[in-house]
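thread: overnight batch results

M.L. [08:02]
morning all. the overnight job finished for the chain we discussed friday. pasting input first so we're all looking at the same thing
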Amino acid sequence: MSAEQVFTNARIVLANDVLHGTIVLRDGKIADLSEGKTTTGEDFDGDYVIPGLIELHTDHLETHYSPRPSVRWNPTAAVQAHDAQIATSGITTVFDCLRLGSDEEGGFQKGEMREMADAIQAAERDDRLRAEHLIHLRCEVASNDVLDHYSDFTEDPHVRLVSLMDHSPGQRQFQSMDQYTFYYKTKRGLDDVAFARFVERRQALSAQYAATNRDTLAKSCAERGITVASHDDATVAHVEEAIGHGVRLAEFPTSFEAAKASHGAGMSVLMGAPNVVRGKSHSGNIAARDLAEMGVLDVLSSDYVPFSLLYAPFLLADHVEGLSLPKAIAMVTSTPARTVSLNDRGSIATGLRADVVRVRRENGVPVVRSVWREGKRVA
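M.L. [08:03]
and the structure it wrote out:
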């Protein structure tokens, strides 16, 4: 006997429309959709049903594993705490960011991220997790040991996304030394001499390693079928470089020029959902809502606040003229799924995975009522 669930009197968010009707889940798949209220099934009282959210870039796991400088938490406990918050935010597929390449920010040592990945996968095998967890490797290309760190993951099929980053002064996010000074001098309390030496070292590392590491990583990803993301592109030249590396996801472009060029080249432009909620970037870069108004925002990421991934699409639909709720929801469901070739999920359509979320939103902040992953209730 098949496992079947019927939810009726729901506002079902489809690709281009909102259907007031009934959805049937059977054997982990979406089996049927119909208009109108049925006499059987669970009455959703007009709540929304949306696809399970797909998170491509979250640093949230790091905050559980290292909640304070130099503090390391039990990896399994960290994964479970992270997973619980992810799932109850409506996220059914999450790409956990693992940082590769040492830096001078108290970064992780070789082997630590492999240990964290092993903990994720062991928790998955033990049925401890609510969401499906895949891996996003954030590779600091201006590091002399990023390739050594990457070697820990060359046989791992969970790696589905790799971003190429350079946080050196004068590069990408930190083209302005004012921003870099705030992040690395003011916040750390460095004096002028110490800060000057710090900048000189970081620039020398970038000049020596960034281009070669970027090329090597992009080639490896192409051979393994892993999606490549650029990070903090600021100029058309950066976008052209990304095109040459087969980039499909442009994360957090720092200028309108770069965002438009990336979108025009067929990349999915990703911005932070917290940026949408706050109405601005926390680091002083461009506002995601402005990109939405220009029609060049494709994907949202919760980045450092998991629940923002649900809240932001509703705000965009409220405030951006011509942007419907289905199109806004696509930024956190079908478009990220397509970008990383997860073709079995991301939309409410018959035959796809029954990853669905019941959401109540009469005004203001939405509320997650229930979450199903492959037809199994997980929250």
